[in-house]
Amino acid sequence: MSPDEPLTSLDERTNKAAFGAARTASLIVLLAGIWLFVSPWVYGAYHNPDSWNSWIIGGIIIGVAWVRLVYPLSMPGLSWFSMLLGIYVFCSPWLYNYTGNTGRFINSLCVGVVVVAAGIASAINTKRMVNQGPVTRPM
Q: Which of 40, 60, 56 is CA-nearest to residue 48?
């Protein structure tokens, strides 16, 4: 092996690890989006007008996470978009004034933090794969 040859096995291991991390983070975002979508029924707030926020944003998070889960090597920008949605979910109790409902309040904070953290992790791991050159889908 010459010094100019790439370390294929190391690159492959790094790519597989980054691929798995990006998919795992996207799966976590997907599950958080599903939870956000069903949470108005769980907390008995489905009759409130601000429940539409959970349904719409939860649906968008589900869609974005599904695309990232199915195609983890492409569109890292969607992970950053998920992160922004997580920030929005975190701020929602103050925007829609339901800080008095402790369950929904804490739920929004937790879902927001999880989506932000997992979105960042997915984007960073996708960037790690992309920056290493041509990447093939690990078996």
A: 40
